[in-house]
TrEMBL record:
It comes from Sinocyclocheilus rhinocerous. It holds the Pfam family BAAT_C. This is Bile acid-CoA:amino acid N-acyltransferase-like. The lineage of its organism: Eukaryota, Metazoa, Chordata, Craniata, Vertebrata. Residues 42-173 form the Acyl-CoA thioester hydrolase/bile acid-CoA amino acid N-acetyltransferase domain. PANTHER family: ACYL-COA THIOESTERASE 17-RELATED (PTHR10824:SF36), ACYL-COENZYME A THIOESTERASE-RELATED (PTHR10824).
Length: 449
């Protein structure tokens, strides 16, 4: 019997030790915080990992399933500090898909997961739903096999293109096809006509984001929209769209801008130079050129491109370099006369644009406007090592993706250009300056230029 008290003590001690072990594990379980949990896509988030052992190697990993059902990921390698923490805005990623103190690298360096389809591009198609990104922290420096590992902690953040209260209005009138986004409140608001490039379709996410920043923005579909032939899409189509935006009761009719990317920029330059209807207070052209005069129907324009398709070059990776086509065109006499422009114009270009000679065009446009006396209206932003697709901030960079050439209907791999980190910087900086430019000229009293 004398042994029982000793056995009881050992039993109690064992139970107590187990309790202490479980309690300690709970207290030291790694914690991951991502703030804000919900925000606009152009808003930075910050992540903090705590309760790690000091000097522990960990991997921060982001995972997103696109609207096309493809999975995208990014990851960075970190080492916890003496307090057992990793903080995105303070600590450097030592490797992975991005390096340096770059918390948003978990977005802009995203790429398709191994085994994905070739030549993918990540674009938001359903803007009324957020882009959900699962962020996890793993033990060790991993570069693959994340789905086979158990994360130490996980958090999900929502990235929205539409702020609360933004209204989405379908435009189906006078053969015009588009979507108008209206900011919260009673209005009226300054208006933006938003033109995307030759990829076609109704691309809404930039317009939705512009509305989230206070602009009534109309995304226009102009490449073979429903019930309209490409042969019918000419200057009058864009003039009708501009008038619809201008006459909307929630839009300030004398505070309008046009924003274009690629072909949308060429259309913007042509319309603002020659149209008697489209007279905006300012315009923004992203990765565009005045060597693409759109003075006829788009069908005729693409037929002209088809006639020079033999000028397209292909690199060693079988990627099409579109830029050479325009550099070889005998179109000096046909280029847009930008000397006629009467409103402030912002050009946004990457110097590694492989689609259009945007930088060369900007230089020539500056000389043309200098001769015409309107050079003071021109502002040029040129970003080193940035490519063609300068999109809203933190969008992943795509150096080359699948693309369908409208002029030949051929499916190719298009080389857009750019290097990931410089391109990410260009997108973030350009967006801030585009918004500032629009507010500067659309909130000021109306001036006759």
């Amino acid at each position: 019997n004398s042994k029982w008290p000793f056995l009881n003590f050992r039993c109690y001690f064992h139970i107590y030790s187990l309790y202490r072990s479980v309690s300690t594990q709970k207290r030291t379980c790694p914690l991951l915080s991502v703030q804000p949990i919900r925000g606009l896509v152009d808003e930075k988030f910050q992540f903090v990992v705590t309760n790690l052992p000091p000097d522990q190697k960990v991997t921060l990993h982001s995972l997103h399933q696109s609207d096309d059902k493809d999975f995208w990921e990014a990851f960075g390698h970190y080492v916890s500090d003496e307090h057992g923490s990793v903080t995105g805005f303070k600590h450097e990623s030592l490797g992975g898909t991005y390096e340096g103190t770059e918390p948003m690298g978990l977005l802009w360096s995203m790429r398709p997961i191994p085994g994905s389809r070739h030549g993918l591009r990540l674009r938001k198609r359903d803007i009324v739903r957020p882009m959900e990104v699962c962020i996890s922290v793993y033990s060790g420096h991993l570069s693959q096999g994340f789905s086979q590992q158990t994360p130490l902690a996980t958090s999900v953040t929502e990235r929205w293109y539409v702020a609360p209260g933004v209204k989405r209005v379908n435009i189906r009138e006078k053969e015009i096809r588009g979507t108008l986004f209206l900011p919260p409140g009673s209005g009226p608001y300054p208006g933006v006509l938003d033109l995307w490039g030759a990829g076609g379709g109704l691309v809404e996410y930039r317009s939705a984001l512009l509305a989230s920043h206070g602009f009534a923005s109309m995304a226009l579909e102009y490449l073979a929209p429903e019930d309209l032939r490409l042969e019918d899409t000419d200057a009058s189509y864009f003039e009708k769209a501009y008038q619809i935006l201008k006459n909307h009761p929630m839009v300030k009719k004398d505070h309008l801008a046009v924003v274009g990317l690629c072909l949308g920029s060429a259309i913007t330059l042509s319309m603002v130079s020659y149209s008697k209807v489209i007279k905006p207070q300012c315009c923004v052209c992203i990765s565009g050129s005045h060597l693409m005069p759109v003075d006829k129907s788009l069908s005729e324009f693409f037929e002209e491109m088809k006639n020079h398709a033999d000028k397209l070059c292909v690199n060693e990776n079988n990627q099409v370099i579109h830029k050479n086509l325009f550099l070889s065109l005998p179109c000096q006499s046909a280029k847009v006369d930008v000397g006629r422009i009467k409103c402030p114009l912002l050009l946004v270009n990457g110097d590694d644009d492989q689609i259009l000679p945007a930088v060369e065009s900007a230089e020539d446009m500056a000389m043309m406007m200098e001769k015409s006396g309107n050079r003071h209206l021109l502002e040029i932003l040129t970003y080193p090592d940035a490519g063609h697709l300068i999109e809203p901030p933190y969008s992943p960079h795509f150096r080359a993706t699948n693309f369908k050439l409208e002029c030949t209907k051929e499916r190719i791999v298009m080389l857009w250009g750019g290097q990931t980190k410089p391109h990410a910087y260009a997108q973030e900086d350009a967006w801030k300056k585009i918004l500032a430019f629009l507010w500067q000229h659309l909130s000021a009293p109306v001036t006759s230029f």
